[in-house]
Amino acid sequence: MRVFIAGIMQGTRRDGGMVRQDYRSRIAAVLQAHVTGVEIWDPNRLHPDGVNYGREEAKRTLVEMAELAARADCLIAYVPEASMGTAVEMWQAYRAGVPVYTISPLTDNWVVFTLSTEVFSDLESFAGFVAAGGLDRGGKVA
User: Fold this and answer.
1) How far does CA 135 lie from the centroid of its chain?
2) Domains in the chain, start-ordered, CATH in brackets?
3) Closest by alpha carbon to 6, among 52, 55, 41, 30?
4) Cα(36)–Cα(132) distance, integer angstroms
């Protein structure tokens, strides 16, 4: 199973910095513990210096990651606050029929509730879902 981990990187920051990315390793650990043979696609690992890219390279990377999200078997989105890049990746996955599992308190956000196959309030509830075989039961979005 190929799993794309989408999630906030810069969010609404204006200083060029990044939001803490430790959620990515936590999600990866849950997947590796419960999904046999999982292949994790993590934009932050694929482009660890992405926040320092120039505009042209950043544009190419944004499009490349959105296209990769559409080729995954499922997408896990971590959205504790609005994230435009994550929304683009979620949209591409949704349009391709890829199940989108979102970890977010933003349950009334139109993007979150429209594009998500299922929404989890926190990482712990998502981990329980995965441990119970939830990803194995997930199907393509209609």
Assistant:
1) 14
2) 2-137 (3.40.50.450)
3) 41
4) 13
